[in-house]
Amino acid sequence: MIPYKQLSLADIYSDCQDKLENDKPAFLALLETYINLDEIIPISFRNHFYASTGRTRK
Q1: Are 38 and 49 contacting, i.e. CB atoms less than 8 angstroms apart?
Q2: What are phi and psi of 22, to 5 degrees?
Q3: pLDDT reported for residue 50
Q4: Which of 1, 5, 22, 39 has the fewest CB atoms within 10 Å, counting from its CB?
């Protein structure tokens, strides 16, 4: 039987920190894969930001 190991938040943080320091492109790829900024940033904020800068919207 395979023994189970519970991951702590400190373990996950240290792994992410190591990845950030040693392999930034892979770290950014992980962020892009697992964090959806469209869910975090409200559409009203995005519209207001692009309206004031004159940039095109998505």
Answers
A1: no
A2: -100, -25
A3: 78
A4: 1
Quote the CA–CA distance of 9 and 23 in Å, as a whole number: 21
Percent share of the chain, pLDDT over 70 = 90
In a domain, 58, yes or no: no
What is the chain's percent helix, strand, coil content, to nearest 5? 70, 0, 30
Look at residue 54 and tell me whether its pLDDT is greater than 70: no
Please give the residue range of the domain that contains residue 32. Answer: 9-50
Measured CA to CA, the distance from residue 2 to residue 14 in angstroms comes to 24
**CA separation (Å) from 33 to 24, 27, 36, 44?**
14, 10, 8, 24
Domains identified in the chain, total number? 1
Res 56: pLDDT: 64
Higher pLDDT, 48 or 42: 42
